[in-house]
Design brief:
Rossmann fold; 2 domains; six-stranded mixed β-sheet; globular; binds 2'-deoxy-thymidine-beta-L-rhamnose
Length: 376
């Protein structure tokens, strides 16, 4: 006798809207989320992005013409207006208050049951975030409610993006010595006594001061510089296209890596200079010491944001000083660099413990799925 098969519930459909403001973070975060929702939660995800060419830099499988391509289980659509959509999804995520098109909102309001509509906010370690996470905001005209979902560093927030197997992949990479192969592919040797650094920052970083300290230090150092702002700055300061030798420091340009390989860079270095939001989070998951170049805001709101993270992280004072100096928020970069170097083993242990603690919290995709399930 065969038991009757229960009907399979329909696959939930989610639309993510992403407007690229600048750089790579908007596209990078939306793609990472979309991919994880599709691959780990069985969700049919459409990613509407207004500048798909930015995503293509992170995702070499994506090629023009960009409309309607499937990549790693995610449907990628070009967000151009008027938006050519067939139906609205069960869950609608707008990244960083990017305002989905009015025609789409009207269609949402016409559904017998409106979709769960979420604004995915920027990451901040500030205390107020927990109070605003999950807040509801009724639309001024349409019968729709938007919910605010805040990433963060505590269980009272939405958590951080982290694929289920991320830390296991990292540990396997490090244990197998795969860093050597990764460096060889970049044309570099794995020199164990050399401090390896990745450098991803904005134009405003005091790179000239950092280079001055590096020139004078005695220990060998290798700095890997990706294209874009960090490389352009290095070219302006040092002339030519590199590689450059500054005393014991060797500065080597590297190609822009597909996002899936960016982690390998962070895992292969002893210290990662990162910026914005996504690389900042990935550097924390690398479990290695990091220096954050925060996205500068005109009203200096970034200063409070930086301090909030330093306090939450429990940054040892030399590291906090280095971060402030790197962000033009006081202190002497040279002294902070030397003092941080002197406590590198402590910084390593601190980063590993921080990562372990963070990993005990639910990841952002998981938290978001739960959040939306309670609201559809
Ligand atoms: O590029 P970012 O500065 O992005 C942003 C934007 O400025 C955005 O407007 C702002 O809101 C946000 O920061 C806070 O930095 P971020 O967030 O680290 O994004 C960089 C992405 O690029 C990240 O997904 C990692 C990826 N990347 C690669 O895939 N390969 C590479 O070689 C490099 C250097 C980065």
């Amino acid at each position: 006798m065969s038991a009757a098969l229960a009907p399979t519930p329909p696959q939930p459909r989610w639309d993510i809207f992403c407007r690229v403001i600048d750089n790579f973070g908007d596209a990078g975060i939306c793609w990472r989320l979309a991919r994880q929702l599709a691959n780990e939660h069985g969700i049919a995800v459409r990613l509407w992005i207004d500048a798909p060419e930015v995503l293509a830099a992170l995702l070499p499988g994506l090629a023009p013409p960009f409309a309607g391509q499937d990549c790693e289980g995610v449907r990628i659509e070009h967000w151009s207006e008027p938006l050519a959509f067939d139906q609205v999804a069960d869950v609608v995520i707008e990244a960083f208050a990017c305002d989905p098109p009015e025609s789409y909102l009207v269609a949402m309001a016409h559904r017998p049951r409106p979709p769960c509509w979420v604004n995915l906010e920027y990451l901040s370690a500030e205390a107020w975030v927990a109070g605003c996470h999950g807040a509801a905001s009724p639309h001024p005209r349409l019968p729709l409610t938007k919910f605010f979902f805040f990433p963060g560093f505590t269980e009272s927030t939405g958590g951080l993006l982290r694929e289920k197997d991320l830390l296991a992949r990292r540990d396997a990479f490090l244990a197998s010595g795969a860093a050597t192969g990764f460096l060889n592919e970049l044309g570099l040797a794995n020199e164990p006594d050399t401090l390896r650094i990745s450098l991803f920052c904005y134009d405003s970083a005091p790179l000239d001061e950092l280079l001055t300290v590096w020139r004078r230090q005695s220990a060998p150092l290798l700095c890997l510089v990706p294209p874009g702002k960090p490389m352009a700055r290095m070219q302006r300061l040092l002339g030519g296209n590199g590689p450059w030798n500054l005393g014991p420091a060797r500065i080597v340009p590297i190609p822009f890596l597909p996002q899936a390989r960016f982690d390998a860079l962070l895992w292969s270095c002893d210290l990662n200079f990162v910026r914005g939001e996504d690389s900042f989070v990935r550097a924390q998951w690398a479990g290695k010491p990091l220096v954050w170049h925060i996205y500068p805001q005109t009203d200096s709101a970034h200063a409070a944001k930086l301090e909030a993270f330093l306090a939450r992280y429990g940054a040892p004072p030399p590291m906090a000083d280095l971060w402030r100096a790197w962000n033009g928020l006081g202190g002497r970069l040279g002294e902070a660099w030397q003092a941080s170097q002197a406590i590198l083993p402590e910084l390593r242990a601190h980063a590993a413990i921080w990562c372990e603690q963070l990993a005990r919290q639910p990841d952002l995709a998981e938290a978001l799925v739960k959040f939306c399930a309670a609201r559809v």
